[in-house]
């Protein structure tokens, strides 16, 4: 089982190789590639990163398959990093 921080870092590393998804994430957050290092330290950024992945099940499953991360680890990371205890698929 990965920690929440390890899971979030793995998501960011995976997104770095998925240019289209990374561009979409950056556009949605208003972050540019040059400020990612600073953004990582901001409260809520890592939770938002995990939430971004969870918002699209095919993307979530692609990440899990590519990184041997369980969906449960991603859900746990989301709960811990964003404070969400009742994530619902909308």
TrEMBL record:
Record's protein name: DUF3572 domain-containing protein
InterPro entries with a match to the protein in the record: DUF3572
Superkingdom of source: Bacteria
Pfam entry (one): DUF3572
């Amino acid at each position: 089982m990965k920690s929440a921080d390890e899971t979030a870092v793995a998501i960011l590393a995976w997104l770095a190789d998925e240019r289209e998804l990374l561009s979409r994430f950056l556009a949605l957050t208003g972050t540019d590639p040059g400020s990612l290092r600073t953004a990582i330290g901001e409260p809520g950024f890592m939770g938002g990163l995990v939430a971004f992945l969870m918002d699209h099940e095919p993307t979530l499953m692609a990440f899990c398959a590519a990184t041997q991360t369980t969906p449960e680890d991603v859900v746990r990371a989301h709960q811990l990093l964003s404070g969400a205890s009742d994530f619902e698929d909308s």
